[in-house]
Amino acid sequence: xxxxxxxxxxxxxxxxxxxxxxxxxxxxxxxxxxxxxxxxxxxxxxxxxxxxxxxxxxxxxxxxxxxxxxxxxxxxxxxxxxxxxxxxxxxxxxxxxxxxxxxxxxxxxxxxxxxxxxxxxxxxxxxxxxxxxxxxxxxxxxxxxxxxxxxxxxxxxxxxxxxxxxxxxxxxxxxxxxxxxxxxxxxxxxxxxxxxxxxxxxxxxxxxxxxxxxxxxxxxxxxxxxxxxxxxxxxxxxxxxxxxxxxxxxxxxxxxxxxxxxxxxxxxxxxxxxxxxxxxxxxxxxxxxxxxxxxxxxxxxxxxxxxxxx
Length: 310
Fold this sequence. Notes:
Pfam families: ABC_tran (PF00005). The protein is of the alpha/beta class. It has helices at 40-47, 70-73, 91-101, 106-119, 135-147, 165-182, 193-199, 217-221, 239-246, 271-281, 296-304, and strands at 2-11, 14-24, 29-33, 55-60, 63-64, 76-79, 153-157, 185-189, 202-207, 210-216, 227-234, 253-256, 260-266, 286-292.
């Protein structure tokens, strides 16, 4: 349905996106992941025809979006990372304004406004000005604007940033429902790996403008099939203990939390005895040392050397 072919964007002497190749099938939810500065927003801007590429192409139903964007713009909905609403207008007035931009008029526009307000759970707040809304309500209305014209494709750029868990869950369930009921195609970026786990059929991972991995969730996790993730838990860790684990020649990656350390090591290495030996050396009382099934977060850290939120 959508294909990115060697898509490239260069700003002066630096590549924001370099030779990006992706495809999105009709009815899929596809995740696009990467740490800050990976090139995700630039890629989305080119895909949505808001930014001209330096090279390559974006194709929709085998027709170039770059050369002729108007057909694609009629069938795509965009949920930007930043709230794009008029805060001095009510929810209904915002939807009416954007509906007219989509060339909706009269009874059809009124019907769509009612339908979208019901879908995003804001019917009883339709007459309230947006500046009185919570962050979660604004996010939901932002999504509502993108749904007004019944898009075939919706692009969601971190749609749950800075909102409460209840609103976040509502948005995730809404996206899932639209995909299942309407076969709506979704490209979804997020800084929350659990959202991607819940929503996405396939995943692309970018770093420094390059595509570094792609596949289903299980295929991505199998990248670590030759390695083990080990969870080390204790009430406290000393700096010396952490440094000793970090500098151990068998440790490929380490993530340090307040009461848990995760390390990635080759599967052939017996790291359990080494962890216990180092703990005894620095008088650390461990509560557990366990093998952990690899997660998307583990793979992401392995590939980029950074957590998703970095």
